[in-house]
Amino acid sequence: MTVDYHESLREVSTPSGVLRYHEAGTGPTLLLLHGSGPGVTGWRNFRGNLEVFARHFRCLVLEFPGFGVSDDFGGHPMVDAQGAVVAFADALGLDHVDVIGNSMGGGVGINFAIQHPERVGRLVTIGGIGTNIFSPGPSEGIRLLQEFTENPTRERLIDWLRSMVYDPALVTDELIEERWALATEPGTLAAARRMYGKAAFAAMMQMMRAADLPMPWALMHKVAAPTLLTWGRDDRVSPLDMALVPMRTIPNAEFHVFPNCGHWVMIEAKAAFEQTVLGFLTR
């Protein structure tokens, strides 16, 4: 099965704006949630995996608001993403889904599973959750992301992209140009600054302290869904020690580490990731 970008692209209206997504395959519904970062989209995160997963599932790759494909809902993109999943599921009448979430998308998936346990069957996360235990924070990858957001240059984009992978050969000229075009689009860049600008980052932390809100990792014991945590051993964005809290506190969690692999597990360890995830989802 070959999944074409244009043929698979769909859109649905919600009270907050239009959400776009890609659909491929038939069977039980598998919702795929992308991560954050310059020039990211759901399609770019998961396009290489759809051919395999669509043989078994009805795959829905949601494009979060504020990343240049769906409408911008106008708020903090990470917060808007939480509501967008619920709005998307309601609009399509999705009563029960399995979820794969990459990095930020994994955190969104965890929140969805906590708030709507009856709607999530199995949950797969790819790095990006938990909290630093032994490694310093923010990590190298997050610092490079903030530097690009503050002052976007092609060189800073390349530095950030290389922090995402174990093998620098994956950062091709084509990838750089693809990411640069969307990351520097004015609306997308403005949304990124609401999320990763240093002032915005500090303001969000201050707001959480003032409101006495628990950190996301402190709520993971509420996840009822069977969960597979996947991680690149050489992740420089969310180092491996971040997995310790979710691994221990999510009641039905399994943990798989891929060697010689950075933050983009679904890309850099493609075949092994697909085999591991399919085994978990179809067990």
From TrEMBL:
InterPro entries: AB_hydrolase_1, AB_hydrolase_fold, AB_hydrolase_sf. GO terms for molecular function: hydrolase activity. GO terms for cellular component: membrane. Pfam families: Abhydrolase_1. Keywords: Hydrolase. The keyword Hydrolase applies. This is Alpha/beta hydrolase. It comes from Mycolicibacterium duvalii.
